[in-house]
Design a protein that fits this description.
By secondary structure, the protein is an alpha+beta fold. It has one domain (1-260): Thrombin, subunit H (Beta Barrel). The protein is built from five helices and 14 strands. The strands form two sheets. A six-stranded antiparallel β-barrel has the order 9-10-11-14-13-12. β3 and β4 (65-68) form a beta hairpin. It starts with a helix and ends with a helix. Bound molecules: 4-(aminomethyl)benzoic acid (4AZ). Residues 151, 202-208, 227, 229-230, 233, 240 line the site of 4-(aminomethyl)benzoic acid (4AZ). The site of 4-(aminomethyl)benzoic acid (4AZ) has 13 residues, from β13.
């Protein structure tokens, strides 16, 4: 009955594909889909997304300034060793634009990503001719946001991706997220962090620093968070943790003025 068993498996797969349609979580079980449970970003979809040479992501906040995670950089000061790849989904594309870091400002008081303050700005050695991603003006509500990066497609993957990947993640209430991480021995800083993800859909190692985006008042993309940390990737009950940009907007605006 080997043949019948095989066709049963196929039928179940086909039925599951039809039933779950485009749901990334359903697809994740069938094939590797980076971020985790995400999709490949076509060229030009997120034109301000950048890859940093230390293996993090970032976003062009201004033509000459990248917003990334605090834990992706060494600290505040002169810095000429971060290479930035921009303007492409495929990092090996010949149309990639590159720049180098000149100066970095990291959040004052940053200790490590699990303690909050996880943001940094990098001034580039030249302005890039690319669209920029504005910081969200309004306080962040609950809902669904888009996250992206060139990081691992699975917790146990050993490689980064050549193509930018993205996924839509629902926010998880602070209390629920804090309770989960308390069990793992980490105390959440609710005003500085927001949690998002669903089983099978999450950011992962190497996505850090990349933007979490939502829709602004006029339907444009605005940045609401920064990929920060999490226990593993896409684990049931452990959503990804993101820097809550609304809390840091005044500090980031002040740092932007200092970097101009
Ligand atoms: C990281 O190390 C990382 N699942 C980013 C996001 C998450 C975990 C780790 C969230 O870059």
């Amino acid at each position: 009955m080997v043949r019948n068993a095989a066709s049963l498996v196929l039928a179940v797969l086909v039925a599951a594909t039809l039933a779950f349609g485009d749901q990334p979580a359903a697809r994740a079980g069938l094939q590797a889909q980076p971020v985790v449970g995400g999709l490949v970003a076509p060229q030009g979809k997120f034109p301000w997304a950048v890859r940093l040479s230390m293996g993090c992501g970032g976003a062009l906040t201004e033509p000459r300034i990248v917003l990334t995670a605090g834990h992706c950089v060494e600290g505040t000061g002169k810095n000429d060793h971060i290479e930035v790849t921009a303007g492409v989904s495929d990092l090996k594309s010949s149309s990639a634009q590159t720049a180098r870091s000149e100066r970095v400002i990291r959040a004052e008081g940053f200790i490590d990503e699990t303690r909050g303050d996880d943001w940094a700005l990098i001034r580039l050695d030249r302005p890039l001719r690319l669209p920029t991603l504005p910081l969200a003006e309004d306080a962040v509500g609950t809902g669904r946001y888009v996250v992206m990066g060139w990081g691992q497609t699975r917790e146990d993957s050993i490689q980064q991706e050549q193509q930018l990947h993205y996924a839509t993640v629902p926010t998880v209430p602070d209390a629920k997220c804090a309770a989960a991480y308390q069990k793992a021995g980490v105390k959440l800083v609710p005003d500085e962090m927001m949690c998002a993800g669903s089983p099978g859909v999450d950011t992962c190692q190497g996505d850090s620093g990349g933007p979490m985006i939502g829709h602004g008042r006029h339907g444009e993309w605005v940045q609401v968070g920064i990929v920060s940390w999490g226990l593993g990737c896409a684990r049931d009950g452990y959503p990804g943790v993101y820097t809550q940009l609304s809390t840091f907007r005044p500090a980031i605006k002040a740092a932007l003025r200092r970097l101009r």
